[in-house]
Amino acid sequence: MPIHDWSRVDAGIFHDFHCAWIVEIRNVLNGGLLPPDHDAMAEQTVGDISPDVLTKQRTLVVRHGSDDRIIALIEILSPGNKSSRHALRSFVEKAAAALVRGYHLLLVDLHPPGPRDPQGIHGALWDEIGDEPYEAPPDKPLTLAAYSSGRIKKAYVEPVEVGNVLPEMPLFLSPESYVSLPLEATYQAAWRGVPRRWRSVLEA
Prior knowledge:
Layout: H1 11-33, E1 38-43, E2 59-64, E3 69-76, H2 85-100, E4 104-109, H3 120-129, E5 142-148, E6 154-160, E7 169-172, E8 178-181, H4 183-191, H5 196-203
Parallel strand pairs: 3-4
Antiparallel strand pairs: 1-2, 2-3, 4-5, 5-6, 7-8
Helix pairs in contact: 1-4, 2-3
């Protein structure tokens, strides 16, 4: 199934899909993709890191079951993350803080760059934590980015566009190890619950 153009509908429609997609990803992770001593849950806040308080976005948090410590975060961006300079800055600062604290990170951004993030969400974040500037390919404006939060921060970026099939992305559990997250399968599962009238708009 190709990535849909979510700019055709308002933010509330994507928010509904976002919530369903988070649940599908959680189910896959807890259904056997994660090691037995790890688990994933949707959480409103992570300590004092709440990536999108303004739009009540939920973060998928992977923890180690032995001591409940945070291992990784999965963020599906919503339009609210880019709705203002403050919102974008807040998201970038909190994502950078998560990496500094040693949390691995996976960002999924199916919304095109705007004036506040001309190089996409990875470009905005990499300006904060990286040494070299990032230039997003103009023909693939949407961004999937996985970050390993070892001593040296590493990013694995997969630019995509509307109409592409979502590739699997690494979800790091340590600086050297990861599981491959099936974004396409979970996207399809969440899509099945989208109301028919909105599916017709997005598929037009």
